Description:
Layout: H1 9-20, H2 23-35, H3 39-67, H4 71-79, H5 86-120, H6 123-126, H7 130-139, H8 141-159, H9 162-190, H10 195-203, H11 214-229, H12 235-240, H13 249-277, H14 288-299, H15 303-336, H16 341-356, H17 378-405, H18 408-415, H19 418-444
Bound molecules: tryptophan (TRP).
Amino acid sequence: MSKDNFTSKIGIVAATAGSAVGLGNLWGFSYKAGTNGGGSFVLFYLFSAIFIGMPVLLAEFIIGREGRKGPVGSVEEITGKKSPFVIAGYLGVLSTFLILSFYSVIAGWSIDYLLNSLTHGFSQYATMDTAAHFGEVSNQLGTQIFFQCLFVLATIAIVIFGIQRGIEKISKIMMPLLFGIIVILVIYSLTLPGLGEAVSFLFKPSPLPEGATYFSTFSSALGQAFFSLSVGMGAVVTYAKAVDDKEDLNSITLQVVFFDTLIALAAGLAIFPIIFSYGMTPDQGAGLAFISLPIAFAEMPFGYIIGNLFFFLLVIAALTSAISMLENSLSVILDKFNIERKVATIGLGALVMLFACLSQTGLNFSCPLLNFTGGTAFMDQLDYLTSLYFIPIGALIFALIVGYRMDTEVVKKQINNEKISKIYIPYVRYVVPILIAIIIVTGIL
Length: 445
Ligand code: TRP
């Protein structure tokens, strides 16, 4: 078999940043900042991304390039087939499967809104109750299943071509496009009267909402940071297996964290000035993108262009994340069974489409076994199950593998930088696991 490795460093960064930058940045970050008191959440987020997310991201790169397989195969290579650490690999591929299932439902809504506003414009939203409308749209079972399947089909159509000809190629086109759209949106928002209010809302530490503590805020910020960086699920391990030995993992890691954080903040700077300028409240919750923004797009100058760019942005950001999730879940099949890539991709993709139907709000399904997660809709249950349990546990185990199970010389060889090794190895051994463990325990309590 010929090696399907990335052909350039730009390709690696584009694909990994593409994995990281997704609905979590554009939709999740802004609404979580909005509902968690703004500036304090953002500070905790930055701390989590840089001091916990980044070292785990590097750990996943090290594991993947050393093991040269997906998260299950790589951890088996490193720790042995019977090692309990292999759980992290299985939790990871399961997490990306579950996340992809509800992610594709949200992406489906985005496609629906995009097509609708492209053809009918935004003035339709000016006079309607957009919250009720969002409820109606997301409850149209047949239509939403169609858009969700369309999205998964697009994901399959890229992943089927593998890393070089599928994922790398598409990421190198989509990521600059995505970046360009964000820049346009931010520049537009900088001209709005609500800018000052938005900046102080995002960056000035404010009192926490009622019932929240600094711990709970920290814990949700860390969850958001892991989710946003695509860390803790082995998705980075899966891309790392296709990274040439000569590439510098440290600078790749740094660039991915930089872009992901930049784009989360830029999305906040694009969205909140609009919210404030049009007299809306920032704590709208998950519906921010679908309920509040369309009204603003209806009223503002150039709203047709800005609004459609925004929904287009949501769709392509979701797509570059979805290909990473599918590729990660696929890795375990390709590593374990002798199945052709084409067949495995289509089979797994079909399974995602079927399973995703359970997350359709129109179906009103919830799983009693998952009530402990605190979610009521199935989509939320899957979100909480993965964010509160699977991802932090996975991240903890990946850190432990690099800290304790891998030969120090091997870790040093992968890092290939004296100074960074000297700081990183003790840090990933003693500091990172403790921080994650504290957050897991307090999160569960
Ligand atoms: N990071 C993505 C976002 O911000 C979502 C995501 C979570 C993801 N886990 C992943 C993407 C695993 C790819 C692989 O929206």
